[in-house]
Design brief:
7 helices
């Protein structure tokens, strides 16, 4: 059975541009397999973006996004599937990735406030996959720590602005070469399917 071609944005959320990091290899594997399978693919690395962090609510509510952020917003508008990869740092997303999300998912682009009720979701019609790497076993993160930061990213950020469905892949024990090999194989399979 063939898979319908998709427009996929692969957002590499590792804050360090050093190519030796496993997240970069995962992003490359996913993007390469997706492209080979006939999907249109854009790949962005947050480590290469130059933007200020938001410091005031008014900047987020009414400020203009910096040029690099506006380009990333255009890439998100173009895509029908977002793949967001990052390493788990202090039990959460790295601060630079959080800064990117704060800049990108602004009112007027990602959501629209209304006089009553929850904001209107402006990024509907797009799906997402979150890929998280970690040193601890993935089951330990899921069951002992309840995967709280992943749940927050899924529900309070991506689904809140319209992404659905939002799937996730947890890759634990990434210091082990066997686990890395399995993770890369999984990215190749997911990329080929555009999942």
């Amino acid at each position: 059975m063939s898979v319908a071609a998709r427009r996929i944005l692969v957002l590499d959320g590792h804050p360090d541009p050093d190519p030796a990091h496993f997240v970069h290899a995962l992003a490359e594997a996913y993007a390469g397999a997706a492209s080979e399978a006939g999907h249109e693919v854009l790949r962005k690395e947050i480590a290469k973006l130059d933007f200020p962090l938001l410091r005031k609510p008014s900047d987020w509510l009414t400020g203009e996004p910096p040029e690099e952020i506006a380009r990333l917003q255009a890439d998100i508008e173009w895509a029908d599937h977002l793949v967001l990869l990052y390493p788990l740092w202090l039990g959460d997303v790295p601060a630079l990735l959080k800064g990117v999300l704060e800049q990108v998912l602004r009112p007027g682009f990602a959501l629209e406030y209304r006089t009553k009720g929850l904001p209107r979701k402006l990024l509907g019609g797009r799906s997402a996959r979150i890929v998280v790497t970690m040193g601890m076993p993935a089951l330990f993160y899921r069951w002992v720590y309840s995967a709280h930061s992943l749940k927050s990213l899924e529900r309070n950020i991506l689904k809140f602005v319209g992404f659905a469905p939002v799937e996730h892949t947890l890759l634990g024990g990434v210091d082990n070469l066997g686990n890395r090999r399995k993770g890369l194989e999984e990215m190749l399979e997911l990329g080929a399917r555009g999942a």
